[in-house]
Design a protein that fits this description.
Helix content: 40-55%
Structural class: alpha+beta
Order of helices and strands: HHHHHHEEEEHHHEEEHEEEEHHHHEHHEH
Number of strands: 13
Shape: globular
Strand content: 5-15%
Largest sheet: 5 strands, antiparallel
Length: 439
């Protein structure tokens, strides 16, 4: 992070709206300029081609990274959840938003520290690194050392983020629609509504502290194997709604294990799938953010480090039971049982046709392919996740008969799709059927 350019976070609603308004004006000016240039050469072009220039897309990504918060989160969610829906150029640049936020300047950082911990904020620490080692959409993370020698990771929320969530998302969505940067057939309004709700939860660091403690209790009780996973301990006395203080844990990026032995990659993916099933069927509590940055690997201990529990969601008992039935029925292709489970989850409206319902069940059957495979399912070079997304996209465009599933289901699917992508990225083989049968 030390080489990252710092940029002050706009804190007031007016300053954030003005910043977004400036983005819209700049996009429009570029469209006019590019259009005039094309016409002077006698070239025909469309509005979409004029908007979808590398310059415009770069301006969009840079502005969202500067605003951080919900504005940046929109770009992250569109990139992560809708990669196949967007033009490749937009998808590629927005993907950088997943880990490319700008850090706050030191002056603004000190103001935040003093407002939360007082003028003597530095007293408990032997050292506090002012340059963050990570910066994301809602906050940035600093390394610190207590006077007792304990190393900490201090997560600081950007100022004004919590109060700007709804307006940011509305403003960015309007710009994306009016500027034609999002294809007209992409239905992402419900995704943005859920993003608002989820971001209000994620912006409450006291809630994330409680989620961290709950998952830590699963390790303490042996429900999560402490030889397989490690979760940072929290320091409640130093935490509040804007600051989350945790144990600093060393690890390497999960994607870096692609160079390690096949057995290690298989073991890592197997542990993550087992944890997913436990979250869904045993804990009824799931960390739903599949961002690869939320996992690290320790080569010395062979353990996986789990981060970022702000996106944790309670899974209702009925939903958990319906998913168990849906998966079990898909293994034996029991369409009636699958239909019953999908109906219970909330996928079907009364007006849905038999043909449309059958297409939905086909998608579920496709998604459960690893569950039906006897032995280790090979995720390497596997396109299952993209095939599922493409089928779902085609279904969502038929809005007269299809509607999006309940929010809890959306996040469950997002987590599972993320695991499929991760297993594919690291080239892992996993006996998913055996894991499901063991619970």
């Amino acid at each position: 992070m030390k080489n990252k350019q710092a940029a002050k976070v706009p804190t007031s609603r007016l300053s954030r709206l003005s910043s977004l308004g400036g983005l819209a004006s700049r996009l429009a000016s570029n469209v006019v300029f590019e259009g005039a240039k094309k016409l002077s050469k006698g070239e025909k072009t469309s509005l979409n081609e004029l908007v979808m220039t590398p310059k415009n897309i770069t301006h969009l990504a840079n502005k969202l990274a500067e605003l951080r918060g919900a504005a940046m989160k929109v770009g992250q969610m569109l990139s992560m959840d809708s990669g196949e829906l967007l033009p490749k150029e937009l998808s590629d640049i927005l993907s950088k938003l997943r880990s490319d936020a700008k850090a706050m300047p030191h002056k603004q950082l000190i103001v935040i520290l003093k407002s939360n911990w007082g003028n003597d904020w530095l007293d408990p620490f032997a050292h506090f690194e002012l340059s963050p080692f990570a910066a994301a959409s809602i906050g940035q993370v600093h390394q610190a050392t207590l006077g007792s020698g304990e190393k900490l990771a201090v997560k600081l929320q950007y100022p004004g983020i919590r109060n700007s969530i709804d307006s940011d998302i509305d403003n960015v969505a309007t710009i994306l629609k009016l500027s034609n940067l999002i294809p007209s057939n992409v239905q992402f309004d419900q995704l943005l509504d859920e993003a608002k709700k989820q971001l209000h939860v994620e912006a409450d660091y006291q809630n994330e502290l409680l989620m961290l403690q709950r998952f830590q209790s699963f390790i303490d009780s042996g429900q999560i194997d402490r030889e397989s996973f490690v979760i940072p301990q929290v320091y409640p006395a130093l935490c509040n709604q804007n600051i989350l203080v945790m144990e600093f844990i060393e690890g390497q990026s999960i994607e870096s294990i692609t160079v390690l032995a096949q057995t290690i990659r298989d073991e890592v993916a197997t542990k993550l799938f087992e944890l997913f099933f436990k979250e869904l069927f045993c804990f009824k509590l799931m960390q739903t953010d599949p961002n690869f940055a939320n996992y690290q690997y320790q080569t010395t201990s062979g353990r996986l480090v789990l981060f970022d529990f702000g996106a944790s969601r309670v899974i209702p008992n009925a939903l958990s039971a319906q998913y168990r039935q849906l998966m079990a029925a898909s293994i034996v292709n029991d369409r009636l049982a699958m239909e019953s489970a999908a109906q219970g989850i909330g996928f079907f409206q009364d007006a849905i046709s038999a043909t449309q319902k059958s297409l939905v069940l086909d998608i579920f059957y496709m998604a459960c392919e690893p569950l039906r495979f006897d032995g280790e399912y090979d995720f390497s070079h596997n396109t299952l996740a993209s095939k599922i997304k493409e089928a779902g996209m085609a279904m969502s465009m038929q809005s007269n008969e299809w509607h999006s599933p309940p929010a809890d289901a959306i996040f469950v699917h997002r987590k599972l799709a993320g695991l499929y992508l991760l297993a594919s990225r690291i080239g892992a083989k996993v006996n998913v059927k055996q894991l499901f049968a063991s619970l």
